[in-house]
Automatic annotation (TrEMBL):
<dbReference type="GO" id="GO:0004170">
    <property type="term" value="F:dUTP diphosphatase activity"/>
</dbReference>
<dbReference type="GO" id="GO:0006226">
    <property type="term" value="P:dUMP biosynthetic process"/>
</dbReference>
<keyword id="KW-0378">Hydrolase</keyword>
<dbReference type="InterPro" id="IPR008181">
    <property type="entry name" value="dUTPase"/>
</dbReference>
<dbReference type="InterPro" id="IPR029054">
    <property type="entry name" value="dUTPase-like"/>
</dbReference>
<feature type="domain" description="dUTPase-like">
    <location>
        <begin position="16"/>
        <end position="145"/>
    </location>
</feature>
<dbReference type="GO" id="GO:0000287">
    <property type="term" value="F:magnesium ion binding"/>
</dbReference>
<dbReference type="Pfam" id="PF00692">
    <property type="entry name" value="dUTPase"/>
</dbReference>
<feature type="binding site">
    <location>
        <begin position="82"/>
        <end position="84"/>
    </location>
    <ligand>
        <name>substrate</name>
    </ligand>
</feature>
<dbReference type="InterPro" id="IPR036157">
    <property type="entry name" value="dUTPase-like_sf"/>
</dbReference>
<comment type="similarity">
    <text>Belongs to the dUTPase family.</text>
</comment>
<comment type="function">
    <text>This enzyme is involved in nucleotide metabolism: it produces dUMP, the immediate precursor of thymidine nucleotides and it decreases the intracellular concentration of dUTP so that uracil cannot be incorporated into DNA.</text>
</comment>
<comment type="pathway">
    <text>Pyrimidine metabolism; dUMP biosynthesis; dUMP from dCTP (dUTP route): step 2/2.</text>
</comment>
<protein>
    <recommendedName>
        <fullName>Deoxyuridine 5'-triphosphate nucleotidohydrolase</fullName>
        <ecNumber>3.6.1.23</ecNumber>
    </recommendedName>
</protein>
<keyword id="KW-0479">Metal-binding</keyword>
<dbReference type="InterPro" id="IPR033704">
    <property type="entry name" value="dUTPase_trimeric"/>
</dbReference>
<keyword id="KW-0546">Nucleotide metabolism</keyword>
Length: 146
């Protein structure tokens, strides 16, 4: 697995920096820098205590943790959240409790999301009169399945 060096500013020195739970994991765990309770249907912007300097040509994608989703209905509202290479502020995660009845409590240092780093390309968009045809054509949401 390829690795890149990413400068990280630890805004909260008492928290662990993001890390991979297992060799080969795609996402590094992001931790909450504060204790809070997320009520049913509530969303909250949660600080992680870290800021990054991603290299140009890379993006950080903030994904929900599958265990939190399955056990408690916790998701990332704008999944995946995007951390652009030029952003230098604290990474914050917009969490949502989709459970209709149960609140979920988080302690400082709990894992709340995963950060995936990916290479990206930028496009040069060219205006044309017509697009070449394809098998799918203009079929949209749900058009390829039942």
């Amino acid at each position: 697995m390829n690795r890149i060096s990413v400068p990280l500013k630890q805004l909260d020195p008492d928290l662990d920096v993001p890390r991979y739970s297992h060799p080969g994991d795609a996402g590094a765990d992001l931790l909450t820098a504060e204790e809070f309770t997320l009520e049913p249907g509530e969303r909250r912007l949660v600080p992680t205590g870290v800021a990054l300097a991603l290299p140009q040509g890379w993006v950080g994608l903030v994904h929900p943790r599958s265990g939190l989703a399955v056990r408690h209905g916790i998701t990332v509202v704008n999944a995946p959240g995007t951390v652009d290479a030029g952003y230098r502020g604290e990474i914050k995660v917009c969490l949502l409790n989709t459970d209709r009845h149960e609140a979920v409590h988080f302690s400082r240092g709990d894992r709340i999301a995963q950060l995936l780093l990916q290479k990206v390309e930028q496009a040069d968009f060219t205006v044309v009169d017509e697009l070449e045809t394809s098998d799918r054509g203009a079929g949209g949401f749900g058009s390829t399945g039942r």
